[in-house]
């Protein structure tokens, strides 16, 4: 492979990265209003005189809260993926414990439709990129079996399967976001600050 080939490949990679970022942003934008509205609805339901009631964190969720969780789950498409179904059920069962876990499970269910779309895009993109890179380096353009592509790509994710790596990151985002919301509740956030936190 010549230096010119490498430079061309680098430019193509940069172009592909820009397209990937644009597509991911587009998927996120599609869900941004819904996510913001769901989190804001929670704030309104638990606010007193413009401030969120921080005492809710020391109480278990009410029947109405659990109903909202189950309602959120119904609106998530009936995807047959094990990872998605596992999270739907896990988030609802988390919500049965105490309010902090309820809030984490709510955040998880609100973000899950976005996660499903990003996951599908991620898996397709990873498979395509690894197959292209394999062909580029080997100079061999025979079609690769999906199992081979998965095995090759696994090495790049600390020997996790790409889907395991994706959902591990997703769960971390859910946890961190719910911790930020819990921290805001503890501080007695007002309407203006809440809009800044949830982005709407």
Give me the secondary-structure category: mainly alpha
Distance between the termini: 51 Å
> What is the overall pLDDT average?
78
* Uncertain parts: none
Taking all Cα atoms into account, the compactness measure Rg is 21 Å
> Strand order within the widest sheet?
1-2
Number of domains: 1
What gross morphology would you assign? elongated
Query: How large is the share of residues in beta strands?
Result: under 5%
Helix content: over 70%
Largest sheet: 2 strands, antiparallel
Q: What string gives the helices and strands in order?
A: HEEHHHHHH
Instruction: Determine the number of helices (DSSP H or I, runs of at least 4 residues).
Output: 7
Give the beta-strand count: 2
């Amino acid at each position: 492979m010549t230096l010119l080939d490498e430079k061309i490949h680098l430019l193509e990679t940069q172009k592909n990265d820009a397209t990937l970022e644009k597509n991911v942003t587009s998927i996120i934008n599609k869900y941004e209003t819904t996510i913001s509205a769901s989190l804001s609805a929670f704030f309104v339901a638990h606010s007193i005189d413009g401030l969120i009631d921080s005492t809710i964190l020391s109480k278990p969720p009410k029947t109405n809260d659990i109903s909202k969780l189950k309602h959120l789950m119904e609106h998530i498409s009936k995807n047959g993926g094990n990872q998605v179904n596992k999270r739907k059920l896990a988030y609802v069962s988390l919500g049965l414990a105490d309010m902090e876990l309820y809030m984490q499970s709510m955040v998880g269910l609100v973000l899950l439709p976005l996660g499903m779309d990003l996951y599908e895009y991620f898996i397709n993109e990873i498979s395509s990129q690894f197959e292209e890179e394999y062909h580029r380096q080997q100079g061999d353009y025979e079609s690769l079996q999906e199992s081979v592509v998965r095995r090759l790509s696994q090495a790049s994710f600390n020997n996790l399967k790409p889907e395991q790596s994706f959902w591990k990151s997703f769960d971390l985002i859910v946890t961190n976001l719910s911790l930020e919301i819990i921290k805001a509740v503890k501080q007695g956030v007002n309407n203006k600050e809440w809009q800044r936190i949830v982005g709407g």
